[in-house]
Amino acid sequence: MKEIIEALALMSSWEITAALLGVAYVILAAKESLWTWVFGFASTLIYTIIFWEGALVSSSLLNFYYMIMAVYGFYAWRKGKENETLKITSYTLSKNLQFIVIGVLLSSVVGYLSNTYTDAKLAYMDSFVLVFSVLATWMLTQKVLENWLYWLAIDSVAIVLYWKMDYLATVMLFVVYIVLGAYAYLTWRKEFSSYL
User: Fold this and answer.
1) How far is CA 34 from CA 25, 61, 178, 184, in A?
2) Could you give the 3-state DSSP secondary structure of residue 89?
3) Among the residues of 54-146, which ranges form H helices?
4) Which of 22, 27, 113, 183 has the most CB atoms within 10 Å of its CB?
5) Is 70 exceeded by the pLDDT of residue 11?
6) Is residue 94 exposed (0-12), middle (13-18) or buried (19+ Cβ within 10 Å)?
7) 8 Å CB contact between 157 and 124
8) How far apart, in whole angstroms, are the C-alpha atoms of residue 61 and residue 127?
9) How many CB atoms are located within 10 Å of the residue 196 CB?
10) Rounded-to-10 torsion of CA 133, 137, 140, 144
11) CA-based Rg of the chain, rounded to a whole angstrom?
12) Could you tell me the pTM of the whole model?
């Protein structure tokens, strides 16, 4: 317990700010609020810088991607298809399996390249988080129900990654993300069921 308290005292205010903005992002996403993308943009801007300075190259690039997707997600959710509000959809099992296979292959390639050609730390784990987060973020912008299941797996791996890098506020954020991701999945599933 003493080590946790000491680690909390050493955390930067920027990391804590990014984590709090990230919590707001997921809560707002569960509620399908457009504000989710504003909070997501702010959080990921801070994390892009933090991870770059910490030599987590894939995580830094991932957060840069999140900033771009925050802008795209805002417009996608606002306009929807044919100027209607975008509704929750679901992917088939075969489409999800395709995503998983593609994700594993891309994670392996990106991990190898990061490990071989950069000074990235924990390159394969970092690459897994990168690749599957890219896929899950795309699914979130399209309001695909299963994105939340992907996030549960991604966040679990991210907890281990960020723990090993001593980003304690971020570890706590990802623990909260798991709880919020489960809540968001159940919320979206209930709404999706009402369409059927």
Assistant:
1) 10, 24, 21, 15
2) strand
3) 57-79, 93-117, 123-141
4) 22
5) no
6) exposed
7) no
8) 10
9) 5
10) -60
11) 17
12) 0.82
* pLDDT of amino acid 192: 93
Q: Which residues contact 69 (CB under 8 A, 6 or more apart)?
A: 137, 138, 141
What is the mean pLDDT of the segment spanning 168-188?
90
Separation between Cα atoms, residue 66 and residue 32, nearest integer Å? 17
Could you tell me the two tokens for 35? Answer: 């504000």
Whole-number pLDDT of residue 62: 84
DSSP state of 144: B
Give the mean model confidence (pLDDT) for residues 142-168.
93
Candidates 12, 61, 11, 19; CA nearest to 42 is 19
User: What rounded mean pLDDT belongs to the chain?
Assistant: 88
pLDDT grade, residue 84 (50/70/90)?
low
Identify the CA nearest to 47 among candidates 184, 167, 176. 167
Q: Are 50 and 14 in contact (CB under 8 A)?
A: yes
Measure the N-to-C terminal CA separation of the chain; round to a whole number of Å. 49
Band of residue 1 on the pLDDT scale cut at 50, 70, 90:
low
